[in-house]
What we know:
Blueprint: E1 2-7, E2 13-19, E3 34-35, E4 41-42, E5 52-58, H1 69-74, E6 98-100, E7 106-108, E8 115-116, E9 123-124, E10 127-128, E11 134-140, H2 149-165, E12 170-173, H3 174-177, H4 191-205
Parallel strand pairs: 3-7, 5-11, 5-12, 6-11
Antiparallel strand pairs: 1-2, 4-8, 6-7, 9-10
The site of zinc ion has 4 residues, from loops.
Amino acid sequence: MKQVIVTAKNGIQIFSAIYLFMHIDTDGWLDTAHFISSPNYDDRPSGVNINLLVIHNISLPPDDFASNGVIDLFTNQINPQAHPYYQTLVGLEVSSHFFIRRMGTVLQFVSCNKRAWHAGISCWQGKARCNDFSIGIELEGSDTVAFTDSQYAQLIALTQCICQRYPIQDIAGHCHIAPGRKTDPGPYFEWPRYLSVLKNNNKESQ
Ligand SMILES: [Zn+2]
């Protein structure tokens, strides 16, 4: 991430903006991400098109944004003694490609080319097993609190980056691909804010 400040000849700062430069390489890795290896992934079915982006929220313990519980979960290192809620997670093998923390830090656990285990039992437009053909982005948060400006900025930049590398056709919430079973990213996720910026950017680039 770089901050670019444009200054007029008289020295007055006339424009300041943060531009997010990100790139996903052919192996599926985001150059600006902090990489943490998860064992919870495998190969996608051969010939599959990666055409769905799934947005989630997660925090562990629930609503605690200071701990590394999510990292522990995605790396199979949850300590059931650390919190009562963790006892419900024992033996769970899950992951996501990306995790965006409250301050906007982006962590990557699985290459986008591989199948992360974030969707579970799911269906999108008649196609089951969404993990096969989707990329999962977890936002650190919950169904009861707003997400941060930094998270939206990083999510939008990451989405644009993913769309440049993969033939994404749809963006859905976990709640949309597993209705009745999942509620994330929840009522505080501002879909119009997210999608309108993407649409505007697409218009500008056309
Ligand atoms: Zn989810």
